[in-house]
Write a structure and sequence with these properties.
single chain; about 150 residues; mainly beta; SH3 type barrels; Immunoglobulin-like; four-stranded antiparallel β-sheet; three-stranded antiparallel β-sheet; 13 strands; elongated
């Protein structure tokens, strides 16, 4: 649940938002609103969602196990994202890597010891590479001059 909340918040806080408040729904049915115009950042620390305010007022903490949903009071809008060549993204829910604009390159997968455990040629402009055969652990995915770390 923490990862889902983190992804939702990262997407909406990094994109232009035209909403006035974020509403935190709690498991007991209550809810609380946070003014987005005064919100500096949201972080996750020791099982809490921590809201820090731009005006310097004290941070507000919410126990993650008590949060059932996050909503925005008005509409939100995410600007269209221009796709860059050579993008690589790990999709944990499917256990695969999505490769965009890297035709002709080779994806190399290394375990935490630095040993190459997988290699695959990228043959199309958009390609999904299955990584679900990898054992649980930390891996580095290298594509051209780009490298990302994943936890499987």
């Amino acid at each position: 649940m923490r990862k889902i909340l983190l992804v939702i918040l990262a997407v909406f806080l990094s994109a232009p938002v035209f909403s006035q408040e974020i509403i935190i729904g709690k498991a007991d049915g209550s809810s609380q609103s946070l003014d987005l115009s005064n919100l500096k950042k949201i972080t996750f620390l020791e099982g809490y969602l921590v809201a820090d305010y731009a005006d310097g007022s004290s941070a507000t903490k919410y126990l993650l196990s008590e949060i059932s949903r996050l909503l925005f009071s008005n509409s939100t809008q995410v600007e269209p994202v221009e796709m860059m060549d050579g993008r690589i993204a790990y999709q944990a829910e499917t256990g695969s890597a999505c490769i965009i604009g890297s035709e002709g390159l080779v994806l190399s997968v290394y375990n935490i010891s630095g040993r190459m455990v997988m290699q695959e040629s990228i043959t199309s402009s958009v390609q999904t590479v299955a990584l679900d055969d990898l054992k649980s652990g930390i891996y580095l995915l290298r594509l051209g001059d780009r490298t990302i770390k994943i936890v499987r």
